[in-house]
Amino acid sequence: MEERKYPFEKITTHLITSGFVYPSSEIYGGLSNTWDYGPLGDACKNKLKKIWRDHFVKTKMNMFEIDPAIIMNPKVWVATGHVANFHDPLVDCKHCHARFRADKLIKDQKPELDTDGMTTEQMDTLIQSGEIKCPECGENHFTPLRQFQMMFKTFIGVDENEASVAYLRPETAQGLFVNFKNVQRTQRAKLPFGICDIGKAFRNEITPGNFTFRTREFEQMEIEFFFKPGEDQQWFSYWKDECLSFVNKIGLKMDYLRFRDHEPTELAFYSKGTTDIEYYFPTLGWGELMGIASRTDYDLGRHQASSSQDLTYLDPETNQRYLPHVVEPSFGCDRLLLALLCDAYDEEEVKGETRIVLRLHKNLAPYQIAILPLSNKLNDEAQKALWPLLSPVFDSIFDTTGSIGKRYRREDAIGTPYCLTYDFDSSKDASVTVRDRDSMVQERVKIADLKAYLATKFAE
Ligand code: ATP
Fold it and tell me: How far is the CA of 139 from the centre of ligand 1 (A)?
């Protein structure tokens, strides 16, 4: 894959300086690899979530969205194996003290090896053999590999002891499984049906970084879709197609996307298949955006065994009881947004100057329209004529600072699809000039027609 046109750092610098993302707790020196979404990033992320909801929940007849708690009974994480197994293999370079995830270190230098199929001992032996070099200093002296628990621990109540330990959820999925019976019963749901949510997850990653690609606190959009055992292949293909249609809908460029089926050696013993959708990030290369996993009845089975509750489904057609099987499409909201912003960033020469344009999908742009009075003398008039009319319908910004040219550039750089300029003729002809972000073509439109005109544009 040839290198992307704009380096990752150029894009992320733009996102920070224009108000999409800020370093978290910045006035206290920040907290490493922790980010806050600014007004533009927050707006964009909310729109991404809305499109996800429209696609996967609103237009589906058998999907139920819930909002489970972040801190769950710790027995949940014992049942799923997270307490025992949710570790990352860690090594330090003895020479320069840089820290690495052992599996990533091996994967980067020996891509032909399947690290998911390797035991801790096999990875350690390889790293200690001298074949793997420190990417920072080039030496090959590493500490022995050790496992690092990735769940954030906390304590419930006043006493901080083993009995009061709880965890911040490392994925939202388990909140969906433990509510299977609640949703099925209260919503009178019949198989096949899905339960989904959007929410924060927390992982004490040892190598966070690459901006919002890998952070310790992130947002997931997850679905557990339950069905009759035996229909696994059919639903796995269905959800792969649905996910592809969703990434198409939000405008991700297909050139930089690939579906990667996990090799049989990478699959957990209970899994009938896993596919990742990966994206070719500028400078960073391929990275996982989401996964679709066919997980049989493993999760419900574990929870049934650990909780001693009956989680089976009574099939109304056959009168049989069984544990449903599940397919899990799991999106990372932050990574998806980052990919969209990387795709959207563009520069072009206009009259000898560089114009930055965020060519975001129109329905993902933080603001849909910018209302720009041509002169400060027109501010009140423009506000009265346009703000009450348009702001209830369209996400709008009213900007009066700087020359009109500068304001157009500013809106281009944050992806606003349409600028509406109110000029000295506007009160006479009851019209404004509408400028298109991508083509820069300007059109005179009657104020009375604006709502319908813009609605058509956003429906395209
Ligand atoms: P990775 O291999 O990159 O650590 P994963 O396979 O552990 O990811 P999953 O457990 O499948 O990730 O989580 C589903 C999705 O959640 C991922 O595809 C990704 O988009 C997102 N995600 C996981 N970990 C992080 C993180 N630390 N920061 C941001 N997003 C994340």
Answer: 30
CATH assignment, 8-76+158-342: 3.30.930.10
What's the gap in Å between 221 CA and the centre of ligand 1?
Answer: 11
Return all residues near 380 (Cβ < 8 A) that are at least 6 apart: none
CATH of 367-459, one of 3.40.50.720, 3.40.50.800, 3.90.580.10, 3.40.50.970: 3.40.50.800
pLDDT digits (tens, 9 = 90+) for 203-235: 999 888 899 999 999 999 999 999 999 999 999
Amino acid letter for position 366: P
pLDDT digits 0-9 by tens, 397-426:
999 999 999 999 999 999 999 999 999 999
**Contact predicate 116/264, CB 8 Å:** no
Q: Residue 335 C-alpha to ligand 1 middle, in angstroms?
A: 8
Those residues whose C-beta lies under 8 Å from the C-beta of residue 448, and which sit 6 or more positions away, are: 430
Tell me if the pTM is above 0.85: yes
Q: Which ligand 1 atom is at minimum distance from the Cα of 205?
A: 27
Distance 332 CA to ligand 1 centre (A): 6
Task: Specify the ligand 1 atom closest to the Cα of 276.
Answer: 18
